[in-house]
Write a structure and sequence with these properties.
Blueprint: H1 8-13, E1 21-24, E2 28-32, E3 40-46, H2 61-77, E4 84-87, E5 103-107
Antiparallel strand pairs: 1-2, 2-3, 3-5, 4-5
The protein binds adenosine monophosphate and zinc ion.
Adenosine monophosphate binds at residues 8, 17, 19, 31, 33-35, 89, 95-98.
Length: 118
């Protein structure tokens, strides 16, 4: 498994930086966003270091499918009964701040568009 020593989200998945964990298995780690834009706002990340969707190909199909496929169940468990949004920011124009692929799951009083703070 490939992780990057100085990557903040790799450090979170390795337990070197504390986080409020939502879910974990052998492939993925989910945790609450430290600066939530809505009452429910958590991130799902792969445990392997992948920068963003420029960095993925067909070999990541199962992993990406797994992450998207678990958003509904986790959103429901976190209290989103009436809907939620999924956002993946990629690169500079995509307003990506942390260069380890992450899926934002945002629910309950969802901002009108984007992340609502920039
Ligand atoms: P972006 O890369 O723009 O998709 O956003 C990165 C997200 O990671 C932001 O919403 C941050 O609030 C969040 N974030 C950054 N550091 C941490 C951390 N240590 N724990 C939880 N969330 C974080
Ligand atoms: Zn990483």
């Amino acid at each position: 498994m490939t992780t990057k020593p100085d990557c903040i989200f790799c450090k979170i998945t390795r337990g070197e930086i504390p986080s409020r964990k939502v879910y974990e298995d052998e492939d993925v780690f989910a945790f609450h966003d430290i600066q939530p834009v809505a009452p429910v706002h958590f991130l799902i990340v792969p445990k392997i270091h992948v920068e963003n969707l420029y960095d993925t190909d067909m070999r990541h199909q199962a992993l990406l499918g797994k992450i998207l496929g678990m958003t509904g169940q986790l959103a429901r468990e976190q209290g989103c009964q009436d809907g939620f949004r999924v956002i993946i920011n990629n690169g500079k124009v995509g307003r990506q701040e942390v260069y380890h692929l992450h899926v934002h799951v945002i629910g309950d009083q969802v901002p009108l568009w984007g992340m609502g703070r920039r």
